[in-house]
Structure formats: structure tokens, C-alpha cells
Design goal:
Number of domains: 1
Largest sheet: 2 strands, antiparallel
Number of helices: 1
Distance between the termini: 49 Å
Shape: rod-shaped
Oligomer: single chain
Number of strands: 4
Low-confidence stretches: none
Mean pLDDT: 80
Strand order of the largest sheet: 1-4
Strand content: 15-25%
Helix content: 25-40%
Length: 75
């Protein structure tokens, strides 16, 4: 069997490309937003919120604004 270097080089380039793209394909980001309210529906400004990733135990914190709105940005 004769070795075809062009095919071998193209195969290596494809493998290298896939290895470089793997982290990008696996990365998923989401933004979580909402409004903090009490049982009567009134907004709660300056509420302290903590979001915990249960798989990694990584925490993000934020504070609701004057309208009770909060946002956790994906990373």
C-alpha cells in the first residue's frame, strides 16, 4: 500500500481543526434575568441574589436594581 501524503496532511489538518473547535462547541452560555417581587407583587430593590452551578459549585452574585430587576450574565 502506497502512502498518499496529501491525504495524510489533509487528515491531520482536519483533526487539528476539530481539536481547536471542540471547546467552542462545548461552551454554552446563557443569561438569566428576572424581577424580584414580594408575595403582593411589589418589586424588591437591592435584593442580594446568588446563582450556584451545582456541577461545579461555582457561584455568581448580583443585586437587583431599583425596579427589582436582576441579570446573571453567562460566562
Amino acid at each position: 500500500m502506497k502512502c498518499n501524503w496529501k491525504s495524510f496532511s489533509a487528515g491531520c489538518a482536519l483533526i487539528a481543526l476539530l481539536l481547536m473547535l471542540t471547546p467552542l462547541l462545548r461552551a454554552q452560555e446563557a443569561t438569566i434575568t428576572g424581577t424580584v417581587t414580594d408575595p403582593s407583587g411589589a418589586v424588591i430593590p437591592n435584593a442580594q441574589l446568588t446563582l450556584t452551578n451545582t456541577a461545579t459549585q461555582r457561584e455568581q452574585t448580583t443585586v437587583s436594581n431599583s425596579d427589582g430587576a436582576y441579570r446573571f450574565a453567562g460566562r
